[in-house]
Amino acid sequence: MQYNLKELPNGIRIVHQEIPHTRLVHCGFVLNIGSRDESKEQEGLAHFWEHMAFKGTRKRKAFHIINRLESLGGELNAYTTKEKVCFYASLLKDHFGKAAELLYDITFHSIFPKKQIEKERQVILEEMSMYRDSPEDSIQDDFDELVFEGHALGRNILGNEETVKSFGQEDFFDFISTRFDTTQIVFSVVGNVSFKKVLQQVEGVLAEIPAKRSLYVRSKFASYQPKTKTLEKDITQAHCAIGKPAYSMYDPRRFQLYLLNNILGGPSMNSRLNLALREKHGYVYSVESNYQAYSDTGFIGVFFGTEPGTAGKAKKLVLHEMEKLRTRKMGSLQLHMAKEQAIGQMAMAEENYAALMLVFGKNLLDKGRIDSLDTIFGIIRETTAEDILTIANEALDPNQLSYLNYIPA
Predict the structure, then answer these.
(1) How far apart are CA 294 and CA 168, in angstroms?
(2) Which of 63, 188, 241, 368 stands 20 to 30 A from 334 (CA)?
(3) Residue 303 burial (CB < 10 Å; 0-12/13-18/19+)?
(4) Would you list the DSSP string of 295-330?
(5) 273 burial class (0-12, 13-18, 19+ CB within 10 angstroms)?
(6) Sheet with 298-306: strands ordered across
(7) Phi-psi region for residue 406, left (φ > 0), alpha (ψ -120 to 50) or beta?
(8) Over the Cα atoms of the chain, what is R_g?
């Protein structure tokens, strides 16, 4: 995978890949700060910061920020995860300079106006209500809390009503000052713009940012105990989550677990869970399994919704498909097809240049490098049926699974 990389004296890195055949440029700042880096009293602050970045800087008001790229047909956005905050944009290549300057402004010069904090507080409270009204979303948050109980990874990225209502201007400045580290910031660019032009636009202003190191160290998760919990909800379907911690992003088996997860309940219609629960029995509209790798641990889980009367049968089918992966060796043709499917999905994902830009930033922060797809494909192609059995017995150990059930009140 060809890309350009420059590290500035203050530690900020600029990564770039030129795509000559597109009209667009995608660029963004990726910061190695997330919701797991909050104290309990700060729960939801990183996500609130993401919102507030658009509400005023030293030289722009909220309207000017929103209108700067939208009036050019571009998109300005942001997201917060457990371990990252990102501010990014997509727009026509001719306007790259405007996007880069605006992103620099909101990332490094937000002033968190007090009046805007009060307005955005209500917006976030509405966002929280929206998620609570969607059991497909809320069960994933509640399941994180169950699996990672007592740890920051288990806290909701959005926070809770008490903390969100408590935040003031100084809370943002204090959080950023203690977590901000210039060696943990990447400006990523993918699109029809040369590396020379990228450096002309951003190198000077980024180099002027004073070098800063944070003394903060993330608390590792190391105290899992399997649990089962049932909650009554004002819903018509029953919803179920089944899962446990899994391999971290530094575990050499993570790509093999990715393959296993894809076989079990990945996005394709021919995943084992979709064939068993939907196609064969009609118990669900959708069922999925997710594998998420963090810096010190990971998570694998299965999620589905069904009629209350079929919830028990659906759960048994999920466990049966897990058992088959643990006890029945895959045939060579079957495994070959699963590998080609996973490889094809990854190749198509690389064609999403906005997502690729974000992956570049994340990988540099997490691993200090960007693995080529050929390297990843090689790991997947070398995976044996015995590897799948071994990893299935670790990742899908029935004695280590936790369960969260939503049932209609």
Answers:
(1) 30
(2) 241
(3) buried
(4) SS-EEEEEEEEE-GGGHHHHHHHHHHHHHHHHHSPP
(5) buried
(6) 228-233, 402-408, 238-246, 298-306, 284-293
(7) beta
(8) 22
* Cβ proximity of 267 and 345 under 8 Å: yes
Distance between CA 345 and CA 351 in Å, rounded? Answer: 10
Residue 266 in this model has a pLDDT that exceeds 70:
yes
Residue with tokens 């209609």: 408
3-class secondary-structure state, position 14: strand
User: What residues contact residue 159 under an 8 Å CB cut-off, 6+ apart?
Assistant: 43, 44, 45, 47, 48, 124, 128
Nearest to 373 by CA among 341, 342, 335, 346: 346
Nearest to 28 by CA among 72, 81, 91, 82: 91
Coil/strand/helix, residue 312: helix
Q: How far is the C-alpha of 155 from the C-alpha of 174, rounded, in Å?
A: 20
Residue with token string 């992003």: 249
Give the integer Cα–Cα distance in Å for 302 and 327.
19
Q: Write down how long the chain is.
A: 409
Strands (E), 109-191: 185-191
Distance from C-alpha of 147 to C-alpha of 83, rounded to nearest angstrom: 17
pLDDT averaged over the chain? 96
Q: Please state, in angstroms and rounded to a whole number, the distance separating the CA atoms of residues 127 and 45.
A: 14
Kindly tell me if the per-residue pLDDT of 139 is higher than 80. yes
pLDDT tens column, 200-217 = 999 999 999 999 999 999
Please state, in angstroms and rounded to a whole number, the distance separating the CA atoms of residues 72 and 378: 42
Using CA atoms, how far apart are residues 36 and 364, in angstroms rounded to an integer?
19
Output the pLDDT for position 222. 87
Q: Which residues pair with 150 in a beta bridge?
A: none
* 3-state class (DSSP) for residue 49: helix
Q: What is the reported pLDDT for 2?
A: 86
- Among 6, 336, 396, CA closest to 196: 6
Residue 1, pLDDT > 80, answer: no
Both tokens assigned to 72: 């050019």
Cβ(354)–Cβ(90) under 8 Å?
yes
Closest CA to 120 of 165, 87, 85, 75: 165
The answer to whether residue 227 scores a pLDDT higher than 90 is yes
Residue tagged 């959005």 (tokens):
158
